User: What shape does this take?
Amino acid sequence: MKLPSLNIQILLGAAFGVLVGLLFQNTGTAGTVASGSLYTAGLIGTLFIDLLKMILIPLVFCSIVVGIANLRQHSQMHKVWVTTLIFFILTMGIAMIVGMAASLYFKPGTGLEVTMFDGAMQNFQSKQMPLPEFFAHFLHNLFVNPFQALAESKVLSVVIFALFLGIALVMGGDRYKNILVLLEEGLEITMRMVNWIMVLAPYGVAALLIKLVATQDISMLGTLAEFVAVVAGTLIFHGIVVLPLILFLFTGKTPFWFWGGARQALVTAFATSSSSATLPITMRCATKHLHVKPEIAGFVIPLGATLNMDGTALYEAAAALFVANLIGVELSFAQQMIVFFTAMLASVGAPGIPSAGMVTMVLVLQSVGLPAEAIAILLPIDRMLDTLRTTVNVEGDMAASLVVQKIVS
Ligand code: ASP
Assistant: This one.
């Protein structure tokens, strides 16, 4: 019997995961069979993420060095750099405007009694995150001993070292051609291993979603329904309307063509809530299905996975306005601008791992004097919303690689 295509298998895996997870929600997770199944699902899901993380660092390292080396040969490097960064900033800015506009219009949180969250807020120790310290920490993380960065999976530091190495390789010309060949073959062989991991994706996605859906406290979704609706609605709007529209305007590519090529990465992002873990699959989709040249994808996608987070930026900005509504503070226009800029900084600084945006959100709240403890209110629904914002983050990276390719070619 011929199996359906991998795309279909992954979608079926996702649907199966959600359904079984909902079943556990209804029947409860107590009992030997239920807890045994959840344990197994958790184990399979984590192993799938482990496999992706195993390949992540060699892949990022090789693809950036090789990408830069090849770009330099086309003397396009400067254009690619600039276009990529401008695209990241613009799309994150648009995402935040969408999220903030909807929050200002619908005012989620105004009707809620803040006292009902007292318990959660008192038991929550928020970490102070003053802006200068956050900024300094971000900068120090750029330049790290490469062996430490590789060993500790510090994606951004690896990206930076790989950029240096790529530039040095090209400037050295023929002198280092063997190193370049070695890394080119390294890239090819890591992509081969990504193909193997992809075969397991339907099972990994199903297992992750079973565990996620079964263990969430869905009742909190009801309490915070308005906020959830505003965030989910605007994230979906950004993913379904804004990004495809930008893509269409610059490249003429239709949304369905784009989603068709991108869906394996989108579903994986949804299930893992981690742009970094999804990165190997994002690279594969960009180069194999969306036909982005490896030298462009090799640069834009890893950088995007750590810096370009449309979904996170939207969420952080909307959440700050929600907290303000909740405690009855009216933010002035100047304060809203501060929220805008710190949310951008906080999402750029957030690593591509689950709930990272929640941690850096302290910065946004503190920037306008809102209580960081309010995060305790959002914590119970964070993992659910993280699925959507990570999907939008990853979609933004793939759209960026297509737009940059079009602009520089
Ligand atoms: N989970 C997100 C990502 O990996 C980051 C976040 O918003 O928490 O892209």
Remarks:
- Residues 273-275, 309, 312, 350, 352-357, 386, 389-390, 393 surround aspartic acid (CB under 6 Å).
